[in-house]
Amino acid sequence: QLQASGGGLAQPGGSLTLSCVASGISLDVYSIGWFRQAPGKEREGIAYISPSMSRPYYASSVKGRFSTSRDNAKNTVYLQMNSLKPEDTAVYYCNRAGPTFLNWGQGTQVTVSS
Predict the structure, then answer these.
(1) pLDDT by 10-residue block (mean), the chain, 114 residues
(2) Which three-class secondary structure state does DSSP give residue 38?
(3) 101-108: long-range contacts at Cβ-Cβ below 8 A with a sequence spacing of 24 or more?
């Protein structure tokens, strides 16, 4: 299972760093995705990173503001979120990039508000 953490309350324009830690599996062979689900909306994939960290993919809604990285030695993937906007408010999850997924963890709440 993968568990995201590091969420919280941030002001518009602020930054947060999320971590994704794996338990029971080794992440270094998987492409990992970051996903988020806002109230009343479907879960969406916003960032993906391959095992080699080459050419991460970002959804247009976060491109230029978010960046993902990984430390395979620590079995951890990170999501650096800068220039946060109120519309970034959501529960954030990490998981395999697909097409099959591991059990979804609880996610971590990110709230962007002044």
Answers:
(1) 95 98 88 96 96 88 96 93 98 94 93 97
(2) coil
(3) 102/1, 102/2, 102/25, 103/1, 105/1, 105/2, 105/3, 105/4, 106/3, 107/4, 107/7, 107/37, 108/4, 108/5, 108/6, 108/7, 108/18
Rg (alpha carbons) of the chain, rounded to whole number:
13
Structure tokens at 78: 């990170």
Q: Of 21, 33, 9, which Cα lies nearest the Cα of 88?
A: 9
Measure the CA–CA gap between 71 and 38, rounded to whole angstroms: 28
Helix (H, G, I), strand (E, B) or coil at 86: helix
Q: Quick one: tokens of 49? A: 């990173």
